[in-house]
Amino acid sequence: MLGNLWDIFLYEPLVNLLAFLVYIIPGGDIGIAIILLTVLVKAALFPLSQRSILGQAKMALLAPELNKIKASGKSKEEQAKDTFELYKKHKANPFSGCLLMLIQIPIIFALYYVFLRGINFDSGILYSFMPVPEKVNMIFLGLVDVSQKSLALAILAGISQYFQAHFMPKPTPPTSGQGTFADSFSKSIHIQMKYFFPFLIAFFAYTLSGAIALYWIANNVFATLQQLYTNKRKHLMLANKYADEQK
Fold first, then answer.
1. Exposed, middle or buried: residue 246 (CB in 10 Å: 0-12, 13-18, 19+)?
2. What is the pTM of this model?
3. Which of 36, 151, 160, 187 has the maximal Cβ count within 10 Å?
4. pLDDT tens digits for 79-100?
5. CA pseudo-torsion sign 9, 17, 214, 219
6. Which one, of 224, 227, 211, lies nearest residue 154 by Cα?
7. Contacts of 206 (CB under 8 A, 6+ apart)
């Protein structure tokens, strides 16, 4: 049952959109179609992911005040009350990012699954009104066969993953003391995302196919640009917060 819903609402629409892009792209370059499909899906998810990232940025701005509440020596109940008032004052929701991310995950996995499963437009999966691409060119820009393993694309996938992690919000250090377990865990995750995960992505991208690597590159470049845009918004939020405090 769940498998049918997955195919009907996620997998099949993405395959059909990919087929349409291949059909309209001169020469049927599947590599260009993969990039366009990834960008279109990321653009459709932009409002959700942007709210998630801005929510994380707002929480990062509140981190010093949250640390002050933890270090105040008040009871757990009083700290919880002060924390709630702080969130209410700044209209922050610590769970908004998680909820929005949960909505995006199935769509992102479905997009990944399209390329992982192999690009095949002859399996009867296309809609009746969808034109079948006359030519499917697997040689991206006449240089790389994305149906095969590609060391160059795998390396680029790892590099793009590094830059995406590099521009992600960094964990805010505690104002005093050694910090909590959550602080240490957050710092550890950030380090792994920045230094270990790129090698993992590069390995899987090379092991699977050039199409997977190209998907990761397009995905990471879009996410990095989005993060840079959000960082500017974060600095604006910080400047406004400082201006409010000076009034």
1. exposed
2. 0.74
3. 160
4. 788 787 777 777 776 666 565 5
5. negative
6. 211
7. 149, 150, 151, 154, 213
